Amino acid sequence: MTSVAPDPLPVLARKDFVSDQEVRWCPGCGDYSILAQTQKLMPELGIPRENIVFISGIGCNSRLPYYMNTYGFHSIHGRAPTIATGLKLARPDLSIWVITGDGDGLSIGGNHLLHIIRRNVDVVIVLFNNRIYGLTKGQYSPTSEQGKITKTSPLGAIDYPINALSFALGAGATFVARSLDIDVHHLIATLERAAHHKGTSFVEVYQNCNVFNDGAFIEFADKAVRPDRTISLEQGKPIIFGKEQNRGIRLNGTTPEIVELGNGVDESDLLVHDESRPDRTVASILTRMEYPEYPVPMGVFRAVERPTYNELLEGQIEEARSREGEGDLEALFAQGDTWVVD
Amino acid sequence: MTTKDEDEIQELDRVTIRFAGDSGDGMQLAGLQFTNTSALFGNDVSTMPDYPAEIRAPTGSLPGVSAFQVSFSSYEIYTPGDEPDVLVAMNPAALKTNLPDLAKGGTLVVNADEFNETNLRKAAYEDNPLEGDQLAAYRVIKVPITSMNARALKDSGLSPQQIDRSRNSFALGIMFWLYERPMEPTLHWFEEKFAKNPAVAKANATTLKAGYNFGETAELFPDHYRVRKANLPPGRYRNITGNQATALGFLTASRLAKRPLLYASYPITPASDILEELAKFKRFGVKTFQAEDELAAIGAAIGAAFGGALGLTGTSGPGLALKSEAIGLAVMTELPIVIIDVQRAGPSTGMPTKNEQGDLLQAMFGRNGESPVAIVAPATPGDCFNMAIEAIRIATRHMVPTIFLSDGYLGSGSEPWIIPSLDDLESFEVTSPTDAETFEPYARDKETLVRPWAVPGTPGLEHRIGGLEKSDTTGLISYDPENHMRMVAYRQQKVERIADDIPELTVLGKPEGALLVLGWGSTYGAIISAVQRAQSSGLSVSAAHLRYLNPFPRNLGDVLARFDKVLIPELNLGQLRMLIRARFLVDAIGLNRVTGRPLKIREVEEQIYKLVQQKAVSVA
Predict the structure, then answer these.
(1) Side-chain-side CA neighbours of residue A44 (13 Å)
(2) Which residues in chain B are closer than 8 Å to A324, comparing Cβ atoms?
(3) Tens digit of pLDDT for each residue in B485-514?
């Protein structure tokens, strides 16, 4: 037999992942940037287009699958993780992306988000957090700050907000990261890390809704103040931030402290970021750092390996087959006591 | 050992026994052993467990009573019997809750040892019913089961509690003697069941024989009985419950459709057995997923179907309500999923372990918008196998969510089942498109109006679907008024056209006459038995049973038109009747029972006589 060289994989570009649908988000919406970085990332992953599926729930963010020239499923409110789970169990060969938002993922679909993360189903989840309900035109969301005045909270929201990353860590997430819509290099790098992680990758993206919650993150995300008011987490390095790179985070027990470098404080006093810690405590402390008390950490908080749900399920099937042999349906029909009537 | 004379044996055609005791007394086990023994012996059998919703209500209390009814016969039977001829009551609470069902003149076997002050109080008896004449209408046989069992096992080395746990075997032994049953199958079963605990196996065997010998020697019973083998259709049989048959049916459907099966479910009474069964079938490649809730279960089924697998979910009424929105998504995306609903008494939590057919209209209409689905309903425990295959065949061929309406009585009831051969089952492979040049996600087959089942992984067929209205053919989002009108009509007509792909309704009896008794689901046995009896008395009555509820068989209108009257017995307030009246303008009469119990043959029979005789009077 002559050996035949396989056809080379076609080289894809961003345009191959752009669908023919007109994008209908409001001009200036942070979603455009997330879409662009996602489309840009796809060719880098080397996965055939037909093996990629985007699944969403309901909300502005959840229109994203329509704009991706891959397989897509725009489902119902909060349920994207369930559809993604069923698809991944049936088709472990596919690369599955769940697109959700603060309302879709943390309010109506909170339970499903909890359980897909807990099971470590091998999918990427991107949660667009704009701290508002945009599609329904401006009601407060579960991540809106307390006191927020919206149409449904004219005297200020009295709900305490939920922290998406603390939630994910609490559920046992094996990959937890945060990025920012306008920080495009950071965003694509974060999404790429998420894509390569085996297991549930949970990425929160701070996304500006310029119509109903404009400037929700501007106090720390604006380019001018970002170096002083955010932290770029880097694996294996002490946590240092500031335009001058002169401040850092030190742990005092379980409480993080902002310290100035110098005057007897040096890098060895600082918390060294290690996303691979088996224990979730330190990552959890980092997720609790919120502006204005602290600079807001961005990047990968946690990345650990653990068998995925879909692998474990396949493993049980293989094990059952190696132990008991392939199932014999007719033998199964006749299981137990049988008798013959002539 | 003495042998009683043959002339002391009475021949009977059919006997119904109910074993009743505390939920820890092993009544289900005793009943199942009696059933299997009778089936192996060659009788026709039909069973109905009746257990409390509480896992372990206080010992001896009324809510803690668990019962198992088995009917066995020398002819074909379709129900576990309207009422028991024999009641085995292991304590006062079991007597109190089950006595109202015992046929007058019936035999009552009581464990006399348990009728002490404490137990009588727990059962709210003021006086001991074994004394006085409260039970004068029955033949009462008092047996000190607890003490005789203890005596039989005094050298067993088991603790007093372990010994007491074998009382069911003593009672079973008495019943085996009374109805001439062989003990070997049960003795063999003890050895297997308690293989790891030989002392317990031996104790149960000892006390089973002790009970048998007691029946033979004690002369408490004037005679014992013989129920000859039934004349059943030839074949190899096993006993099967509806939920077991459901699990096997879907497993088989996956083989026939050549598509892998994912069963996603959240545990709920009385549907949990199906998840437990399918979870054992890993070697067949079945994937089971115990979801976090009902919404997740159906979401996973939809995801699997999108991926080209068979997406199956199962629940009971409250869970079906929770799945409504997602069923609508499957209607809109036209994906083949199957939803099992093992109905139970509602509304709300209702009576989880009791039976009802209350979900038909929920299955038909319980969604927002015009949201048609296909609906099938098995008629007997064994029929769950056939209809499971039909549900998958319809769902995949017609790209439509299909609801499989079983109920608790079918699910936990059992009957002998002819073991099928795979060669006799027709495969129904549905292909997925691969040609990117001609593919359109919502292009429809001209005959069936079915859209293609394009699956991820197929190059060039990348497309997006979702819950928003689709544009005809392209599947893109559309708010166009005329397009919406057309798509609503397509979805409706697509379901209606399934009628061309299902069998016509058959009529049991003459194709025309004074009365048609029309049923669906688990009332089959009671209806058929009642109609057969009425027919043998010369009444002009026929029966027809719907196993396809949406769409109806195409000849249903013709069948209805050939009868003067139509009676529809249902375990609800008239849900099928409402559909029949609306669809065919037939003034159907209802027989509606919502007691949590299965329909009785007698209830149907009485109604038949009333309706047919009314006619005779009006004609005169």
Answers:
(1) 12
(2) 283
(3) 999 999 999 999 999 999 999 999 999 999
